[in-house]
Amino acid sequence: MTPPRSAFGAPPQGGAASGPAEPVPRRPLDQTALVQRRGLLLGVRGWAAVICALALLTVVIPLLNRVVPDGHVFHVSDYAVGLVGKILCYAICALAMDLIWGYTGILSLGHGLFFALGGYGMGMYLMRQIGRDGNYKSELPDFMVFLNWKTLPWTWSLSDSFVLQMLLVVLVPALLALVFGWFAFRSRIKGVYFSIITQALTYAAMLLFFRNETGFGGNNGFTDFKRILGLPIATPDTRIVLFAVTGVTLVGFYLLARAIVNSKYGRVLQAIRDAETRVMFTGYNPLAYKLSIWTLSALMCAIAGALYVPQVGIINPSEMSPSAGIEIAIWAAVGGRATLIGPIVGAFFVNGAKSWFTVAFPEFWLYFLGALFIAVTLFLPQGIAGLFKRFSGETREKHS
Predict the structure, then answer these.
(1) What residues contact 304, with CB distance under 8 A and at least 6 apart?
(2) CA distances to 26, 77, 194 from 185, in Å
(3) 0.90 surpassed by pTM
(4) Which residues, including other chains, have CB under 8 Å from residue 225's CB and lie 6 or more apart?
């Protein structure tokens, strides 16, 4: 007769008559994994970090700017608020790039187009809010009066309504991305060829917006904004509200991106990145997945552009230049692709360095940017986030 086996598959000590088997030891419960399985995505520490980030962006920095007096060591200047607010918009673009490049393997060099379209959509509304406060005291924007326009073009029909114009800010870039992506992905254009045509699309749009007859301000674009939602746009109170809204938007998009990459949909995206042909053999249609994440990424950039314009105070065709799209890719690469938090860090690191270099050594900025990209490509393929993971892993090994 075969002796009974214990829970570990081996006969108990002393045969069948040796008494009851000892209880099976249980592995300690992994609370972090349990929280993630329940759909909370981040775990306790992650949610604590999110709450701290929201508090910093919506409470701490506004209070340090508006309550703490000038000259105090903890005072945050209006310039710092404007600079960080601008970089927060860039961080949204870097996060959007990570979704398509880091997690789907689609490198776009034309995301500056969607950013600029969102900015132009917001700029059109802001130009209409100037009213008769412009130099020519006309209901038409000053550049239209200068070019002898008599009426608003049809493209400006909804620009007097904030709600309708914000719908256009979302719909126009999303529709353009959807149509462009449909033809590109349906034709199975990928790799460097896809990157080139996205840059070509952006360059063509830039040339179009440079023309005065298109009705978008030509070379000068839109500037000299006065009001937003009836409030003066240049006051510190309005700017700090725009800053807080941008911070909340970035955190919201981060949580959305985190939910996407941790879902089944996100795992399919990563499978497409690693082996698209195998994904097709298993019965999935990569077109729908690539098209949907591409459109979402474009929409995120458009919203970032809409938040950028009232804080910076200008939008012109230079935002569609080929270098603008390349810089977005550099932010993601420097921070670390396929990490979500890495591109955000990369946007802050690169643009913080840019702000310092353009003041201290303006002639060396482009050399620094090129050297930084080469160094990251050669020595830090996982970016700053990968370096941090490596360092934290080595630290844990030393303490264990």
Answers:
(1) 89, 90, 92, 93, 96, 115, 118, 249
(2) 49, 46, 9
(3) no
(4) 123, 126, 127, 129, 130, 233, 234, 309, 310, 313
CB atoms within 10 A of CB 48: 11
What is the distance between the alpha carbons of residues 233 and 242, in angstroms, rounded to a whole number? 9
Closest alpha carbon to 110 in 120, 96, 123, 89: 96
Query: Side chain identity at 60, as an amino acid letter?
Result: V
Q: What is the DSSP string of 304-317?
A: HHHHHHHHH-EE-G
What is the tens place of the pLDDT at every residue in 224-278?
A: 999 999 999 999 999 999 999 999 999 999 999 999 999 999 999 999 999 999 9
Query: 227-228 and 222-223 as β-strands: parallel, antiparallel, unpaired?
Result: unpaired
**Per-position b or e across 291-317, b if 16+ CB within 10 A of its CB:** bebbbbbbbbbbbbbbbbbbbbbbbbb
What is d(CA 76, CA 69) in angstroms, rounded to the nearest whole number?
Answer: 9
Q: Which amino acid is at 18?
A: S
DSSP state letter for 60: I
Interatomic CA distance for residues 356 and 133, integer angstroms: 36
Where do the structural domains in the chain lie, given as residue ranges?
Answer: 77-322
Is the separation of the CB atoms in 165 and 175 below 8 Å? no
